[in-house]
Specification:
The protein is mainly alpha-helical. It folds into two domains: 13-75, Arc Repressor Mutant, subunit A, CATH 1.10.10; 80-209, GntR ligand-binding domain-like (Four Helix Bundle (Hemerythrin (Met), subunit A)), CATH 1.20.120.530. It contains nine helices and three strands. It has helices spanning 13-26, 38-45, 49-61, 80-104, 107-126, 129-146, 150-169, 178-193, 197-209, and strands at residues 35-36, 65-68, 72-75. The chain has a three-stranded antiparallel beta sheet. Residues 11-78 form the HTH gntR-type domain. One of its GO terms (molecular function) is DNA binding. Pfam families: FCD, GntR. Keywords: DNA-binding, Transcription, Transcription regulation.
Length: 218
């Protein structure tokens, strides 16, 4: 595979393979739809297929790649139309969920959301973007679950894989302040704790649209 570079050391191989292949996707050396051939990647990097397999699983989990049974794994492809459609639906879902949660102010749910904000802050400080994205997605999943409307949770579970792809693939070159992104989620949490349903609904809708002033919003 052109551009892979020098062989890797044997320390944390799956992490190194993930970082290397992710870099190729982010930089555009691997395009949407390109197949991730584990044997080829392993050969080019001078490692066995085991760490490559783990790295590809991580890429699939984070939305950078799609796995198709009996065909293999491919770099995720997100069209602008799909992105617009997903965001439009998400605005409605999160606005509805935020209104419901603000009206109830369930302490257990609020604490779960607060824990994810802490995770985002710690991940931002450590520069662990994979962990940040996991906490980010979980924050919004918990919001839907806390709404006590089972249909919202079901809709979110259907959309989550696509949202991961949108989050990672559609703006992979984000160079903004991850700590500021974590702070914005803290502000969103404050709107829920305020028990002002209109304020919370408006804040989450704006966030879903990307109108909250934070580039690369979740």
């Amino acid at each position: 595979m052109a551009g892979v570079g020098e062989p890797l050391t044997r320390v944390l191989l799956s992490d190194q393979v993930y970082t290397r292949v992710r870099g190729l996707i982010v930089n555009g050396d691997l395009k949407a739809g390109d197949r991730l051939v584990e044997a080829e990647i392993a050969r080019d990097l001078g490692v066995s297929q085991a760490p490559v397999r783990e790295a590809v699983k991580r890429l699939v989990h984070e939305g950078l790649a799609d796995h198709i049974p009996r065909r293999g794994s491919f770099v995720a492809d997100v069209s602008s139309q799909d992105a617009d459609a997903a965001r439009a639906v998400r605005v409605i879902i999160e606005e509805f969920a935020a209104r419901a949660v603000a009206e109830r102010a369930d302490p257990e749910s609020v604490e779960a959301l607060r824990a994810k904000v802490r995770d985002m802050r710690e991940a931002a400080e450590a520069g662990d973007i994979g962990r940040f994205r996991d906490a980010d997605i979980a924050f919004h999943r918990i919001l839907c679950e806390a709404s006590a409307n089972p249909f919202l949770s079901r809709i979110w579970s259907l959309m989550e894989p696509s949202l991961r792809a949108l989050r990672v693939v559609s703006d992979p070159m984000f160079t903004g302040d991850w700590a500021e992104m974590a702070l914005q989620h803290g502000v969103l949490l404050e709107t829920l704790e305020s028990a002002d349903a209109d304020r919370a609904a408006a804040a989450f809708a704006a966030h879903a649209r990307g109108d909250d002033g934070v580039l690369g919003h979740s």
